[in-house]
Design goal:
mainly alpha, Threonyl-tRNA Synthetase, Chain A, domain 2, two-stranded antiparallel ribbon, 3 helices, globular
Length: about 110
């Protein structure tokens, strides 16, 4: 019998392209500043925000570079895929610290 996967409730389906852009921004910020992924994010159709903990405020040039990097990735129109894995499988490749205590094991 195939296991039924239950995803944690979240508004990420509000506007999937913005959720994908969040991942691109997170990867760019981590690579640029060596910081953790966004500490807090609100992803919605009309307006989204991501909060990062940085040692200093990004310069105008850094902000422009981040925007260009994310937009370049978007312009490649690459396929977006989803991979389901357990916490045990994921712990070495992603930060699980923001998962709620009652998060499903997948």
């Amino acid at each position: 019998m195939e296991q039924q996967i239950q995803l944690n409730d979240h508004n990420k389906q509000e506007y999937p392209p913005m959720h994908t852009a969040e991942h691109l921004l997170n990867a760019t910020m981590v690579k640029t500043f060596g910081c953790p992924r966004s500490r807090n994010a609100h992803i919605e159709r009309k307006k989204s925000k991501c909060d990062y903990i940085l040692l200093s405020c990004p310069t105008a040039e850094q902000i422009q570079s981040i925007e260009e990097t994310v937009n370049e990735a978007i312009s490649q129109n690459l396929p977006v895929t989803v991979e389901y894995m357990t916490h045990e499988q994921a712990k070495d490749i992603v930060d699980l610290s923001k998962l709620p205590a009652d998060a499903s094991p997948t």
